[in-house]
Amino acid sequence: MPITIRIPTPLQKLTANQSEVSIEGSDVKTALANLEKQFPGIHERIYDEKGALRRFINFYVNDEDIRFMDQESTSLKDGDELSIVPAIAGGF
Question: What are the E-state strand segments in 1-92?
Fold first, then answer.
């Protein structure tokens, strides 16, 4: 079941400068594991040393934040889009 993962600019050097990649996965965790298999080194950029998704990276399935869904267990279906979005801090 292929889904599209949207890759942020800072991680595109790990995906051969691709902004989108097609990956198999029935849930977010499986899709991210398969992303690591296809593009080694990306895991350490999105997971912390304890194996949790990094706090300052947001993940969206079809524009819905996975923190308000089933987190890494969020189900994926054919054609879904998983976006990896680094949090941006700042202000006036």
Answer: 2-6, 20-24, 57-61, 64-65, 81-86
Q: How far apart are CA 37 and CA 50, in angstroms?
A: 19
Question: For domain 2-86, is the CATH number 3.10.20.30?
Answer: yes
Query: Where do the structural domains in the chain lie, given as residue ranges?
Result: 2-86
Single pTM value for the model: 0.92
Sign of CA dihedral 16, 17, 20, 25: positive
pLDDT in tens, 22-48: 999 999 999 999 999 999 999 999 999
